[in-house]
From TrEMBL:
Gene Ontology BP annotations: L-amino acid transport
Pfam families in alphabetical order: ABC_tran
UniProt similarity note: Belongs to the ABC transporter superfamily.
Residue ranges constituting the ABC transporter domain according to the UniProt record: 5-234
Organism: Devosia crocina
InterPro entries in UniProt: AAA+_ATPase (IPR003593), ABC_transporter-like_ATP-bd (IPR003439), ABC_transptr_urea_ATP-bd_UrtE (IPR017780), BCAA_Transport_ATP-bd_LivF (IPR052156), P-loop_NTPase (IPR027417)
PROSITE patterns named in the record: ABC_TRANSPORTER_2
UniProt KW keywords: Amino-acid transport, ATP-binding, Nucleotide-binding, Transport
A GO MF label: ATP binding
Lineage of source species: Bacteria, Pseudomonadati, Pseudomonadota, Alphaproteobacteria, Hyphomicrobiales
Name of the protein: Urea transport system ATP-binding protein
Length: 234
């Protein structure tokens, strides 16, 4: 089932500092939407507003038919928002299997299993089920973090810089996995990134962010335009 996610004129503050200034993002059902921006422009803040980790100061976030107000993170996860945080946040002392099983928390008893397709997407997880999370490479941990989010049976998957610090061959695997989730599972995907080439390859729709504001909205091919790229130059 595909569900849309919609962020409308959201402000977010950390104390007196405003991190998000009236941002609006529409994630169309069954498509991959990418938000691009340099360091510190508010990408993670946007995802933490969507997952409910941070409260918004104004504006609304809608998920399907529901408007999320003070809905806590665990309820949003149960509703179908799967989250892959920046830096992956794998439990280093738990095994790969135990890390995946942390995704069971919000599931009904008969859903408490690891869907087989996760191991087809990321075979390395199957071969390393008994290893500790902390023993995995960065790329393997990223696959594990995506696998853990998929265990929760998300309708919308949000990912915070899934390519950060990861070798090119695994970036390709992750890109293919996201396209599989869109095409075969009908998932709606939102990712935030700094890596243009990855977004041009996997995303359908893009948003470009700078200093807490959305500067541009369009198809992924707009990343070839100089007036769009200028917002992303360091
Ligand atoms: N917990 C916090 N308390 C205070 N300020 C914060 C906090 N988290 C983020 N900020 C500030 O809010 C702004 C946006 O940060 P955010 O982490 O959302 O950016 P980002 O685009 O994800 O950056 P990066 O590319 O480095 O991950 C930055 O100026 C940052 O310093
Ligand atoms: Mg960030």
């Amino acid at each position: 089932m595909s569900l849309a996610l919609s962020v409308k004129t959201v402000d977010l503050h950390y104390g007196a500092a405003q991190a998000l200034k009236g941002i609006s993002i529409d994630c169309a059902p069954g498509r991959i939407t990418a938000v691009l921006g340099r360091n510190g422009v508010g990408k993670s803040s946007t995802l933490r507003a969507i997952t409910g980790i941070n409260h918004v100061s104004s504006g609304t976030i809608a998920f399907g038919e529901d408007t999320l107000k003070r809905t806590p993170p665990y309820k949003r996860a149960r509703m179908g928002i799967g989250y892959v945080p920046q830096g992956r946040e794998i439990f280093p002392l738990l095994t790969v299997r135990e890390n995946l099983e942390t995704g069971y928390a919000g599931l009904a008893r008969n859903e408490r299993n690891i869907p087989a397709y996760i191991f087809e997407l990321f075979p390395v997880l199957k071969s390393m089920l008994g290893r500790r999370g902390g023993d995995l490479s960065g790329g393997q941990q990223q696959q594990l973090a995506i696998g853990r989010a998929l265990v929760t049976r998300p309708k919308v998957l949000v990912l915070d810089e899934p390519t950060e610090g990861i070798q090119p061959s695994i970036i390709k695997d992750i890109g293919r996995a996201l396209q599989f989730l869109r095409d075969e599972k009908g998932m709606t995907i939102l990712l935030v990134e700094q890596f243009l080439d990855f977004c041009r390859e996997v995303a359908d729709d893009i948003y470009v962010m700078d200093r807490g504001e959305i500067m541009h909205t369009g198809p992924a091919s707009d990343l070839d335009r100089a007036d769009v790229r200028k917002h992303l130059m360091v």
